[in-house]
Amino acid sequence: MTTSVVVTGIGVTAPNGLGTDAFWAATRAGESGIGPVKRFDATGYPAKLAGEVPGFEATDHLPSRLIPQTDHMTRLALVAADWALADAGVALDQWQQFDMGVITASSSGGFEFGQNELQKLWAKGGQYVSAYQSFAWFYAVNTGQISIRNGMQGPSGVVVSDQAGGLDALAQARRQIRKGTRLIVSGGVDGSICPWGWIAQVAAGRLTGSEDPDKAYRPFAADADGYVPGEGGALLILEDAESARERGARVYGEIAGYAATFDPKPGSGREPGLKRAIEAALADAGVTAADIDVVFADAAAVPDLDRAEAEAIGAVFGPRGVPVTAPKTMTGRLYSGAASLDTAAALLSIRDGVIPPTTNVAPAPEYDLDLVVDGPRTAPVATALVLARGYGGFNSAMVVRKAAK
């Protein structure tokens, strides 16, 4: 169970960049993809901003037969998987089908597809509902469609743990590779920017009501009042390190450590579980707090949650003890896609020796964080910690580091 698991490919569909290079260039430069909702008329809703993937035309990337059977979210995922495999230099005809699997995360499934079919049901009748509704809405649909498209018949699955899911899926992929699978496509791509999905998100009470994209999503700020939702995410190619070396693959870094915890019952008086997750992930990676060069924060922009995260980081690393960043202020929180996109950003930080900024935030002194703001910070990055939390008390932490030569 000590097999080294590395990342050899990255595919990104993000609100501030379609493709890994576009996303990373925008993220380093502090360019946001947040703006007024365009996918539907949000005039009557209390939240009116979102991070939407720009310039995405599914027909430019996918065969026409896939369009009527897939939700927008799944189209984004299929394209991200294609790009990740190409980035990893994977020639599918040279791989055994049972050596490759797919493990993705999902928080809501194909909400937009489901909404459209329900509208047909009530307006026209059951005979007008697409047969594809039987699976296009489902949480596991991204895994299934990627598997079918690429002939991947190895261990596969879906993880549903809300915004912690992107890390949890990568961890499950790591486990499967340690059990002998050579390659897993993993991560999360999510999106439910439609009236049905919007109502579900608004009901949770954590969305900002701001209509100014430059002031809307401000984690760790004194005036934080909620987050901006978004769509997209990142899929990564995970491989056994030895197998990757044998085929001459370029390696972004190693998935070195992971842990997950649950928060205690509200009112119990016990501390949130994030600190335990951080400590366990460091232990799993065999590193100490002093070895971490940057923390990619969950960054809820909800005061109580920001305080809990800041306290967990401070307890492990000390006051202002490690650079902290939240580049998701440029994309919105992408639900199950958020943490895998942060993991991709962490690996790119390791590659380029630069920490991307947290935009539009004046950090509140009481949090006592060394928050990277105003612009990117040049620094050697060998090891990074990525944090993620989901509704209901999910906490996940993952350590990624520069791979051994």
Automatic annotation (TrEMBL):
Keyword tags: Acyltransferase, Transferase
The protein's name: Act minimal PKS chain-length factor (CLF/KS beta)
Family the entry assigns: Belongs to the thiolase-like superfamily. Beta-ketoacyl-ACP synthases family.
Matching SUPFAM superfamilies: Thiolase-like
Record domain Ketosynthase family 3 (KS3): where: 2-402
Organism from which the protein derives: Actinacidiphila alni
Any single Pfam family the record assigns to this protein: ketoacyl-synt
Gene3D superfamilies named among the record's database cross-references: 3.40.47.10
Matches recorded under InterPro entries: Beta-ketoacyl_synthase, Ketoacyl_synth_C, Ketoacyl_synth_N, PKS_Beta-ketoAc_synthase_dom, Thiolase-like
